[in-house]
Design goal:
- With 183 residues, the chain is α/β, with parallel strands linked by helices.
- It has a single domain, classed as 3-Layer(aba) Sandwich (Rossmann fold).
- It contains 6 helices and 6 strands, in the order βαβααββαβαβα.
- Strands 1, 2, 3, 4, 5 and 6 form a 6-stranded mixed β-sheet that branches.
- The longest helix is centred in the N-terminal third of the chain and has 15 residues, at 15-29.
- The protein starts with a strand and ends with a helix.
Length: 183
């Protein structure tokens, strides 16, 4: 199975990226192929509302660094998204990335309403400075809900809060690895 990960932190060694990579390590241990997109290293535009995807029942036509992502997503059995929490919400680049999935929904009467195969397993990994882990859970569920609206199936949400340890062997890293193995 192909596991696609989109890491939204600008810091490659951030809590959200480190924990997401541990999910991926577990997935690789289970024999899955892993593809990683580091959003901060990519040129990703926001949706231009051009309508091409709606008129042509097609993936987003924008010629930016997300172009290969659409093929990977259509082949994926799982999608891992990770992001830091800035100002009580998912960081801006990940919201832009989420909005680009508009192309996967159709209102054409003779076409399926969702253009990605149903059942892609979805995992969210988030980090926040506030130590109360469930403080922003509704915000994370809102973000992941957009993917669930595209027939993806939420497996779990991992939240790193405050100064919670995320070194090797810590509770969240063990949970992340086991989650990856179970995909």
């Amino acid at each position: 199975m192909k596991v696609v990960a989109v890491l939204g932190s600008p810091r490659k060694d951030s809590a959200s990226s480190t924990i997401a990579r541990e999910v991926l390590r577990g997935a690789e241990a289970a024999g899955h192929e892993v593809v990683i997109y580091n959003l901060n290293d990519m040129n990703v535009k926001g949706c231009q509302a051009c309508g091409y995807c709606k008129k042509n029942y097609a993936d987003c036509i924008l010629n930016d660094d997300l172009k290969p992502y659409w093929k990977d997503l259509h082949e994926a059995g799982a999608l891992i998204v990770s992001a830091p929490n800035y100002c009580s919400q998912i960081n801006g680049p990940m919201i832009t990335y989420m909005n680009r999935h508009y192309c996967l929904v159709s209102s054409l009467p003779d076409k399926a309403p969702v253009r990605v195969h149903p059942g892609i397993k979805l995992v969210g990994v988030f980090s926040q400075g506030y130590s109360k882990a469930d403080a922003y859970l509704d915000n994370y569920k809102w973000f992941l809900g957009d993917f669930e609206n595209r027939d993806m199936v939420l497996q779990d949400i991992l939240v790193h809060a405050g100064d919670m340890p995320y070194d090797e062997g810590s509770e969240i890293m063990v949970r992340a690895y086991e989650l990856g193995k179970s995909l």
